[in-house]
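pinned: reference chain
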Amino acid sequence: MRKSKIRISIMFIALALGLLTAMVGALLFGSTKTGLKDLLDLLTTGGDPSVATIIFNVRLPRVLMAAITGMGLALVGAVYQGFFRNPMADPFMLGMSSGAAFGASIAIVLGLESAVFFGMGFVSVFAFVGAALTSVAVYMVANSGYRRQKVTILLAGIAISFFLSAFVSLFMVFSQDGMQKIVFWTMGGLGGASMDQVIVLFPAVFLGGVALMFFARDLNVLALGDDTARSLGVEVEKMNLPVLAFSSLIIAVCVSFTGVIGFVGLIIPHMIRLISGPDHRTLLPLSALGGAVFMVLADLLARTVAAPAEIPVGAVTALVGSPYFIWLLLRSGKGGALK
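pinned: its structure tokens
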């Protein structure tokens, strides 16, 4: 037990230091060359105004957006994998990515990319509404039967996801001008990050994450099965609404600003679980930190590897995440465990 606590403490410290290092590195590196001395000058004597604009107005919002989004995606991924007892669960499995893409596509087709609503772009607003309404629709369909079953929630999410994806495809076919914009949005990116978006995103992810942490013990018991959990006093059916609601809030806000960024919520919880174990009381915060580190580094690669051109960060996470997940599957087939 003592060794386990020491290992967990070391993981927290290592991930926190890794996040700090990744964020500082992301502030310093980019298509415009800056260095640690430039950053120190800005913090002490004011430095070059042009460098200040690059670091604080362009890179800082993007780095913060990447870190917060990574936290939200990895945290919800860990929650879903425990809640559904499904190692393939990820934050978008209930169709919210399709709902967000549907909403964003409507805004793009209507030519509202430059329109602003209370400081937020209309594409982001429409994407958020689409994701939120999708989560409501999934829950309502899943609860229309006699008993609330998690498999019904999954099936409802899959059905609604395919339905909305069909509409997105139609938008792309009938709107040649908007097709490229829709495709780029669905690949995920942080190019338009601003401090206004960070101010909206951070409270949603932080408060939603704190709320989900209250269910960590119940998620541990759920690993034994729903019937066993009920016998141990966990009100499984009553968990559905709050867990799905707080998770949906986090994902809807994240995807509305960044588009669909896959694999973060799928592979990070697996990586953390292999080292820390399945206890959600430590798995959830560690996954959040791990997701933040991963996203900051992925976005750094996205904007530097082909500079001055930029690769969609969703493509970077997929290129990194797919081989790792295939390795996990192969490891599982050779006697390992994909849990």
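why pinned: The chain has one domain: 2-333. The first helix runs from residue 2 to 28.
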